[in-house]
Amino acid sequence: MDRLKVMYISGYRSFELGVFKENDPKITVIKKVLKKEIQQLVEEGLEWVLTSGNLGIETWVTEVVAELKQEYPELKLGIIYPFKEFGNNWNENNQEKLRMAEQLADYVEAVSHQAYQSPSQLRNHTRFLLDHTDGCLLIYDPEFPGKTQYFLKEAQTYQQDHSYEIRLVSMDDLQNFSE
């Protein structure tokens, strides 16, 4: 396997984890796991982390990468939205989180330059991420379904014809890490 230079990192949305406050202890555990995983990847040659700006794992990834950049200034962060005006219908607090994430990012772009119109924009976004990354790190456990299952399924199909690495961090992994 070639070195992983670009990784898509995603996972559960905050509501799927039952996280509704900034001081939820689950966030601390998740960020520590993300930091450990990303640090290892950077030491193996990772250059870019991509996310799509969703609340939850993806928001926390942007914070972790920003922190890691102090130690690894060469690490870059990209936010690739599925469509223009992503998150515009969110409440003010969540829109602020998105703006903060954008400020931490080295690159912000949308796959579709139109506002949301159809699920095909989401499929095109997934395809774009698969075509432009060497692998993905998902904080996701198939035993606890969530929206990430759609990306995972596409990634597994993609993997059949492409060299693509899928790394999963399960609920057990998180649990073991927190103990």
What does this entry show, briefly?
The protein is of the alpha/beta class and 179 residues long. 44% of the residues lie in helices and 19% in strands.
Shape: globular
Task: Give the assembly state of these chains.
Answer: single chain
Beta content: 15-25%
Cα-to-Cα separation, first versus last residue:
32 Å
**Rg over C-alpha atoms, rounded to the nearest angstrom:** 15 Å
Summarize model confidence as the mean pLDDT: 95
Provide the low-confidence segments as ranges: none
Helix content: 40-55%
Q: Structural class from helices and strands?
A: alpha/beta
Total number of helices: 6
Order of helices and strands: EHEHEHEHEHEH
Reported for the largest beta sheet, the result is: 6 strands, parallel
* Count of distinct strands: 6
What is the topology, as strand order, of the major beta sheet? Answer: 4-3-2-1-5-6
Explained architecture:
With 179 residues, the protein is an alpha/beta fold. It has helices at 25-43, 57-68, 92-104, 119-132, 148-159, 171-178, and strands at 6-11, 48-51, 76-83, 107-112, 135-139, 165-169. It has a six-stranded parallel β-sheet, sandwiched between helices. Helix 1 (25-43) packs across helix 2 and helix 2 (57-68) runs parallel beside helix 3. The radius of gyration is 15 Å and the shape is globular. The model has no long low-confidence stretch (mean pLDDT 95).
